[in-house]
Design brief:
Diaminopimelate Epimerase, Chain A, domain 1, 2 domains, 18-stranded mixed sheet, alpha+beta, globular
Length: 272
């Protein structure tokens, strides 16, 4: 079985967010969950994606699931982009691909320039009071806190400025008490000429990821938040991890489009 490591939301190797991708040949069935989780632990990236083809009468083309080294997740943007990239570059699927997932049918559409646009549900944002201990866990004062709903499962936290986002060194053990998955920290871009509109970092200790390099699902919450603030439906976000990556977003009501590119960096045989 072929396994690939794909760097997503980047146009060059060793940046963006790496994901494992396995295309399974059997239609209409995944292997045992224990095996899927063991493979994801072996790959040991933020997510490993498993996809198998569906029969022609199905509502989607491929079934797709995502696992961190610790657990299965309900939605993952970068591993979906990575899977679409593999399908298109290997010739396993042509044109837009419909994925059946725990978050409904998600569509990935390739473009002539090599980019892929993901059609994801927009996260419902609910403003809440900062939970007790959040400021101490994050290590900085917060301006706004929002719950991002069940699909994303994070707290979206606005902090003072871009420098604050980049300098964060949170107490991850303490941070884990405040949401289902973790915390998205964000601020407006300092330099309007920098090519991005807002900056973020994502900390997900509850699913075994201390800091996620580039998080597509988080941008289904960041897009509506910053589109309302900045008055524009189309924006570009920079996730300022050590690997870093950019995501172009377009808010369309209850759907958010996420656009980026990907690069396959490793391909080999899974023998187990």
């Amino acid at each position: 079985m072929r396994i690939r490591i794909v760097d997503a939301f980047t146009d060059r190797p060793f940046s963006g967010n790496p994901a494992g991708v396995l295309l399974l040949s059997r239609a209409d069935a995944f292997p045992d969950d224990t095996w899927l989780q063991n493979v994801a632990l072996e790959v040991n990236h933020a997510e490993t994606a498993f996809a198998h083809p569906l029969r022609e009468a199905s509502e989607a083309d491929w079934a797709l699931r995502w696992f961190t080294p610790a657990t299965e997740v309900a939605m993952c943007g970068h591993a979906t982009l990575a899977t679409a990239h593999v399908l298109h570059t290997t010739g396993a699927h042509d044109g837009p691909v419909r994925f059946a997932t725990r978050s409904g049918v998600l569509v990935a559409t390739p473009a002539a320039d090599g980019s892929v646009t993901l059609d994801f549900p927009t996260a419902p944002l609910t403003r809440i009071d900062p939970p007790g201990g959040l400021v101490e866990a994050l290590g900085t004062e917060v301006l706004t806190v929002l719950d991002t709903g069940p699909n994303v499962g994070d707290l979206l936290v606005e902090v003072a400025d871009e420098k604050t986002v980049r300098a964060l060194a949170p107490d991850l053990t303490a941070l884990a008490a405040h949401s289902e998955r973790g915390v998205i920290a964000t601020a407006r871009a300092e330099d309007p000429a920098g090519g991005y509109d807002f900056v973020s970092r994502c900390f997900f200790p509850n699913v075994g990821i201390d800091e996620d390099p580039v998080t597509g699902s988080a941008h289904t919450a960041l897009a509506p938040f910053w589109s309302e603030r900045l008055g524009r439906p189309r924006l570009t976000g920079l996730q300022a991890s050590l690997r870093s990556g950019r995501i172009r977003t377009e808010l369309r009501g209850d759907r958010t489009l996420l656009t980026g590119t990907a690069v396959t960096v490793i391909e080999g045989d899974l023998l187990a």
